[in-house]
């Protein structure tokens, strides 16, 4: 099992047939899930900084493609608004954007 930290989820991250479980999570639950280690898939500096502050840990920028396998967990920091095309947010702008945490787990698809 691998725990990933990301700011997006895509169906390209799984191999069908797979069964997904998606639950909304609070910061405390995310902290508990990543406590034993995680792989960052956060591709933008401003996002990594705001997540680092929220979770009280260092989240490295790591622009990678991931493939989830059975029992993997993906902690997703999901922005609740669509940004304008090409817009790169400053740290201050990032703090103003509403977001929620979700935990995605995968069964099957190997």
Task: Give your account of this protein's structure.
It is a single chain. This protein is an alpha/beta fold and 110 residues long. The chain is built from three helices and five strands; from the N terminus they run E-E-H-E-H-E-H-E. The protein has a five-stranded mixed β-sheet with strand order 2-5-4-1-3, covered by helices on one side.
Can you tell me the CATH superfamily? Uncharacterised protein PF08960, DUF1874
Distance between the termini: 12 Å
Give start-end ranges of low-pLDDT stretches: none
Summed up, the helix count is: 3
The overall strand count is: 5
- Residue fraction in strands: 25-35%
The computed structural class is alpha/beta
Instruction: Give the total of domains.
Output: 1
Q: Class, according to the CATH hierarchy?
A: Alpha Beta
Helicity, in percent?
10-25%
| Order of SSEs | EEHEHEHE
What general outline do the C-alpha atoms trace? globular
At the fold tier of CATH, the topology name is Rossmann fold
What is the mean pLDDT? 89
Query: Would you identify the CATH architecture?
Result: 3-Layer(aba) Sandwich
- What's the gyration radius in Å? 14 Å
């Amino acid at each position: 099992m691998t725990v990933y930290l990301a700011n997006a989820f895509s169906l390209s991250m799984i191999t069908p047939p797979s069964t997904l479980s998606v639950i909304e999570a609070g910061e405390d639950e995310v902290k508990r899930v990543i406590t034993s280690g995680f792989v960052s898939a956060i591709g933008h500096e401003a996002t990594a900084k705001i997540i680092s502050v929220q979770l009280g840990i260092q989240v490295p920028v790591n622009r990678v493609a991931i493939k989830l396998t059975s029992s993997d967990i993906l902690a997703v920091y999901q922005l609740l608004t669509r940004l304008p095309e090409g817009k790169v947010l400053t740290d201050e702008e990032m703090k103003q954007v509403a977001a929620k945490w979700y935990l995605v787990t995968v069964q099957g698809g190997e």
